[in-house]
Design brief:
Shape of chain B: elongated
Structural class of chain B: alpha+beta
Strand content of chain A: 15-25%
Oligomer: heterodimer
Largest sheet of chain A: 4 strands, mixed
Number of domains of chain B: 5
Shape of chain A: globular
Strand order of the largest sheet of chain A: 1-2-3-4
Number of strands of chain A: 4
Strand order of the largest sheet of chain B: 6-8-9-11-10
Distance between the termini of chain A: 29 Å
CATH superfamily of chain A: STAS domain
CATH class of chain A: Alpha Beta
Largest interface: A-B, 26 and 26 residues
Order of helices and strands of chain A: EEHEHEHH
Helix content of chain B: 40-55%
């Protein structure tokens, strides 16, 4: 389930409200690919609703980052969920995506 | 190291033989408890093992066998009865001795493990009935060296920069198969710290092209952990089908591996993969994987394993290089060792026998060729004759070894023992290049050890005593060997205190070996030391002095058809001389004829041949000697000697063959000289074993049998006659 808000200045906002796993990888891919077109200047991806992120989801995010670089738009990841932060921590990916990560005070691992 | 190993090997063999003999004797005692010979043999086994172990510094063995020996000594002197219980305990002691010797042989530096020590003590208390006398075993420190452990890591490996590098390349199906690379990496975290991860995707791949259910991820993980490669590999065990895993050890591990490689035993040739698995640098899986790849590769570009390992980031170059060097070293060592083949002596004996037959049939063929005048066969026959001769020489060479190696073993013995006894002793070796039959060398080793030990212990005095006696502080023991008329002479001499005839006589009287009114010559007195149970030393030591040994020495030497004699002077030294036959199966002989019978004299013993003109040579038929250029020479008329009942018919001119054995000389009067002959010695069989003057027989090319003369015996015989007759004339 994704919620898509399109703005006129070419800034797309996308909230992902489901797990990013192999089970929905195909639909996720299509959704994400749908955001990558000539009119896109910025893609904001709200990850707060992602309760699970596995390798399939991760590689989609990585490929999306590549895609953005290739197409010349910027990808912003926003409001990382705990599951996302955990994976980014594990693989030290925070630097790669370059987005500020807000660690919520209530996070169990803090 | 290398000069001790053969000695240790001999020691191990000797011990095995002794223990086997001991077991047999013990089992024999079960049914026949009064067999004193069996008790002696058990005692000797323990005594000899104790002595030899002492020489090698195996204190544990000495401590244990000493206790057993003491009990056996009591049994021998009838102070303790032998019963089934004691036999059982002694059998257990025998097994225990074998065990501790095994232990000390393979773990020379380590002390006995706890359980062996306890077992030893239990046995000793069973033997002696008390537990006090085992203090010697308790004294030994119970430190145990830790065996090398692959899993142990030096403290410096926890350096922060020091990481395993784990490369994971997942295959497309990994995700569909339920593998989540992330979960493996999460698990990896429990084993150590992940310091760096590089996540990579295949280049030029675009979001639109992918199948989102395929896995495209590759990971490179810098991982800091003290765990070993195997454990890390196990983390990815379930993924191995769906993932290429490469684990490169950290640099500090590398040093660790190098060290392990250096410590790897060199006794066995191992393949590179096996070595690397042994030290934990590679895992079984990695090696089998590499080997599969190697096999799958095209024939033309098969790369060596080491190269592949470096290429695939499984191991660093230096480790591989070191492993290859080590492998080479082991290979060379093994090659060196395998230059020698151990051959069953029986097989060699059979070969020599066959060669003997070949020599005989060669001679027979020669005879036929000459008889029929086949000139065209002549060439072939002579070529074959040469070959047969070469084969004979080579076959005999196979069994000949230099005695030097046996001698040099004593260097170490002398060194160690002199230290132990607080004496200064040097060993001089001469004539080490003298060769003799291998079987003789093996059998002479024990007697020699006894004799050297005796010289060390009894012969040479302490430095103070030596200085007092006006001798150099440092004592000398000399081992000498030389060939003398087809025999080998081995001399063991020392410049020690010498044998005291009075002491020997006193001791022999006490033991009832001689009677008080007997008068003995000097050499007869010295020969008493070869009697069982005679020792002039008051106290028994680790080395010698229990009165066993010299009798065994004599028996062993006589079993080789040799002889032993001792000469000594009080304060000057002792010299023991051993004569041994070379026991050649084939010798160069000199063939003579007397009374239509052919005889062979070993050529090496023939001094000269002279034409026998009775007028010129002044044969004294009554006193049985000839005057050889002014020398009195005892003689034997071979024809008369071997054909006592036949009347001597002097048909032709006779010849005199002068033979020599050691210092003794004699002349054999024969009818005809036939010259040199290749002689294959055939034993005469039991029936004729004790024949006087005959040492064997040989088959001639013609099929006739010729007897080989026992020159030593015949000279004795000739001399006796002269002596008797001269004595007779003197009384007249």
């Amino acid at each position: 389930m994704t919620e898509n808000t399109k703005k006129n200045d070419g800034i797309h906002h996308l909230s992902i409200k489901e797990d990013m796993t192999i089970y929905n990888a195909q639909t996720l891919k299509d959704t994400l690919l749908g955001q990558c077109h000539a009119g896109t200047r910025e893609l904001h991806l709200d990850l707060s609703g992602v309760t699970e992120l596995d390798s399939a989801g991760l590689q989609l995010l990585l490929l999306l980052k590549t895609e953005a670089r290739e197409r010349g738009f910027s990808l912003r990841l926003l409001r990382h969920s705990e599951a996302v932060i955990e994976v980014f921590e594990l693989l030290k990916l925070g630097m790669y995506f370059g987005d500020p990560i807000v660690i919520p005070a209530t996070w169990k691992k803090s | 190291m290398s000069d001790i190993n053969p000695a240790l090997e001999t020691f191990a063999q000797e011990v095995e033989e002794l223990l086997t003999a001991m077991e047999e004797a013990l089992l024999g005692l079960d049914s026949n408890p009064d067999d004193s010979e069996a008790i002696n043999s058990i005692f000797r086994a323990m005594h000899t093992i104790k002595g030899s172990s002492g020489l090698f510094g195996f204190d544990d063995v000495v401590a244990f066998t000493h206790e057993v020996e003491t009990v056996l000594d009591q049994v021998r002197n009838n102070e303790r009865a032998i019963d089934p219980e004691l036999i059982a305990v002694l059998l257990a002691c025998k097994d225990h001795t074998a065990q501790i010797i095994q232990h000390v042989l393979f773990n020379e530096a380590l002390s006995l493990p706890e359980d062996l020590q306890q077992l030893g003590q239990a046995l000793i208390s069973q033997l002696t009935g008390s537990a006090e006398s085992v203090a010697s075993a308790d004294d030994l420190p119970a430190t145990q060296a830790e065996p090398a452990d692959h899993f142990e890591v030096d403290s410096n490996t926890t350096d922060s920069s020091d990481n395993w590098v784990i490369s994971l390349a997942f295959k497309a199906n990994a995700l569909r198969n339920g593998m989540d690379p992330l979960s493996f990496i999460r698990y990896l975290q429990t084993l150590g710290k992940i310091s760096e991860v590089i996540v990579s995707l295949p280049p030029l791949i675009r979001l639109e092209d992918i199948n989102p259910e395929d896995c495209y991820l590759n990971f490179k993980i810098a991982f800091n952990s003290n765990t070993d490669k195997k454990t890390i590999e196990n983390v990815f065990e379930f993924a191995e089908d769906d993932c290429d895993i490469h684990i490169l050890p950290p640099n500090s591990r590398q040093e660790h591996y190098l060290q392990l490689l250096a410590n790897l035993p060199e006794d066995q040739f191992k393949r590179l993969g096996e070595m690397l698995i042994d030290i934990g640098a590679l895992t079984d899986k990695e090696v089998s994987h590499i080997l599969d790849e190697q096999r799958a590769a095209e024939q033309t570009d098969v790369k060596p394993m080491g190269e592949m390992l470096v290429e695939q980031n499984l191991l660093q170059q230096p480790v591989i290089e070191q492993a290859l060097l080590k492998q080479e070293a082991v290979k060379q060592r093994i090659n060196k060792e395998s230059n020698y083949i151990r051959v069953d002596a029986a097989k060699l004996g059979y070969l020599i026998n066959l060669v003997g037959e070949l020599v005989i049939s060669g001679a027979a063929m020669r005879l036929m060729v000459d008889k029929h005048g086949l000139s065209d066969v002549d060439d072939v026959a002579s070529t074959m004759g040469d070959l047969v001769e070469d084969i004979r020489d080579t076959a005999l060479q196979l069994r000949m070894v230099q005695i030097g190696e046996t001698f040099t073993r004593f260097q170490r013995v002398v060194h160690d023992v002199s230290k132990e006894l607080g004496k200064q002793i040097q060993l001089q070796i001469t004539g080490g290049e003298a060769e003799l039959d291998k079987t003789v060398v093996e059998k002479i080793n024990d007697p020699l050890t006894h004799l050297v030990r005796n010289s060390l212990d009894h012969g040479i005095e302490t430095p103070e005593q030596r200085l007092q006696a006006g001798k150099p502080e440092k004592g000398t023991i000399q081992l000498n060997a030389y060939h003398d008329s087809g025999r080998i002479v081995i001399q063991i001499s020392d410049d020690g205190r010498g044998l005291d005839p009075d002491k020997i006589v006193a001791k022999a009287l006490a033991k009832g070996l001689i009677k008080a009114d007997q008068t003995l010559s000097k050499s007869e007195i010295y020969n008493l030391i070869f009697e069982p149970g005679l020792s002039t030393k008051e106290e028994a030591s680790n080395l010698s002095g229990r009165g066993v040994g010299m009798d065994v020495v004599k028996r062993n030497i006589e079993a080789l058809r040799g002889s032993v004699a001792v000469d000594s002077e009080v304060g000057v030294g002792t010299i023991v001389t051993i004569h041994l036959p070379l026991t050649l199966a084939i010798i160069d002989g000199f063939m003579v004829e007397a009374q239509q019978e052919r005889y062979i004299i070993p050529l090496s013993m023939v001094e000269e041949c002279v034409e026998m003109g009775s007028e010129e040579w002044l044969i004294d038929e009554v006193q049985h000697y000839v005057n050889l250029r002014g020398q009195v020479l005892p003689y034997l008329r071979l024809g008369d000697f071997f054909h006592n009942n036949k009347k001597h018919t002097q048909t032709k001119r006779e010849s005199l063959v002068v033979v020599r054995f050691g210092e003794a000389k004699a002349g054999f009067v024969v009818d005809e000289l036939h010259g040199e002959n290749q002689t294959v010695i055939k034993p005469l069989g039991q029936l004729f074993e004790n024949l006087n003057g005959i040492g064997g027989a040989t088959v001639l090319g013609s099929g006739d049998v010729a007897l080989i003369l026992d020159v030593q015996g015949l000279i004795q015989h000739a001399k006796k006659r002269v002596g008797a007759n001269l004595a007779l004339t003197a009384t007249l």
